[in-house]
Amino acid sequence: MSTTEVQDSEVVEEQGKHESAPKKLLREKHKKYFKQMLTLLPEPFQAHDSSRLTLLYFSLSALDLLGAVDELISEKRKHELIAWIYSLQVKHDEEHGYSRCGFYGIVLSYCYIFA
Question: What b/e string do you get for 42-73 counting C-beta neighbours within 10 Å, with b at 16 or more?
Fold first, then answer.
């Protein structure tokens, strides 16, 4: 058996050991991470201003899947998040030149793509 074959068989054996082991979701760590995403974005995400709404959506969705929205987010904070989402809304306004509706991040992305 060649060295490559031995290494390949060891990798397969090692992978097989991990595949049969039950996977455990680290719920508390996930809840902490997604709650943090609602208040302070990690540095790599801070430059993605137009993605804030998307990151909020996925963070809230993850907390909802973990059954932790009511546990970790106060009613006051929920209302603040809702108000923030509505503050990003672009409403149809022909008088001021807004012929499209949506949200600022989406509109800006659209403008950059089709400008």
Answer: eeeeeeeeeebeebbeebbebbeebebbeeeb
Query: Distance between CA atoms of 76 and 98, rounded to whole angstroms?
Result: 32
Tell me 67's DSSP state: T
Ranges of beta strands (E only) in the chain are 89-90, 102-103
Phi, psi (degrees; rounded to nearest 5) at 101: -115, 165
Token pair, residue 91, equals 């409403």
Task: Give the Cα separation of 93 and 103 in Å (integer).
Answer: 14
pLDDT in tens, 38-87: 888 778 777 766 678 888 899 999 999 999 999 999 999 999 999 988 88
